[in-house]
Design brief:
7% strand; Arc Repressor Mutant, subunit A; three-stranded antiparallel beta sheet; 59% helix; 198 residues
Length: 198
């Protein structure tokens, strides 16, 4: 998924963030198909001219929001690890899964995965982002003599991880991020003694 790179002032970045935050809130409230540009600018407390400085239309802000979150899912899953350094799974703790905290901090967005009338294609993004990350940048050292670095196994791991996270969201985030991180670590320890991030 392409990621737009622009040189924007901090004020412009804040404005865009407020538009995307308003858009996310409105989808949660009304459903994607019932949100208009007028709704977004009214919720964000800007005018239409300001919206059109940054976005062509509703599909444009939709694509940027999806792309931004897709890239952040990948980034927060790896940014706590030193490239090329082997990590023993037994040494992992609740701070080892940055993705879980990121999802908890962005619950409004991830609640969109639970809606029937949501951003088109969104349901595929979380497992696809995790799979791309595993496939492109993670090498696992298995417990025993198993090939856990095949694309098929990494796809299985990605969908399993996404499934547990979305079940957590579906249940209202009743477990703390620490509890969810510990569960994921326990599952990883059952199949891998370590991993390396490229």
């Amino acid at each position: 998924m392409a990621d737009k790179k622009e040189n924007l002032s901090p004020q412009a970045e804040r404005t865009k963030h407020q538009f995307k935050q308003a858009f996310t809130e409105l989808i949660n409230e009304k459903g994607f198909n019932h949100v208009s540009v007028t709704d977004i600018v009214q919720r964000a407390q800007y005018n239409r001219a300001t919206f059109y400085l940054y976005y062509l239309d509703k599909p444009d802000i939709t694509e940027e929001l999806r792309s931004e979150m897709f890239q952040q899912i990948k980034q927060t899953s790896k940014d706590r690890y030193i490239p090329g350094k082997e990590v023993a799974t037994e040494s992992m703790n609740e701070d080892s899964f940055g993705l879980v905290t990121f999802i908890y901090d962005n619950r409004s967005f991830f609640n969109l995965y639970l809606k029937e009338d949501t951003i088109p294609g969104l349901y595929q993004d979380l497992p696809r982002a995790i799979f791309e990350l595993f496939d492109e940048q993670f090498t696992f050292t298995p417990v025993g003599d198993h090939d856990i670095n095949s694309p098929a196994f990494k796809l299985y791991m990605a969908h399993g991880t996404a499934g547990l996270i979305l079940d957590w969201a579906k249940n209202g985030y009743q477990k703390s991020p620490i509890e969810v991180s510990r569960e994921l670590i326990g599952i990883l320890q059952a199949i891998a003694v370590g991993f390396r991030v490229e």
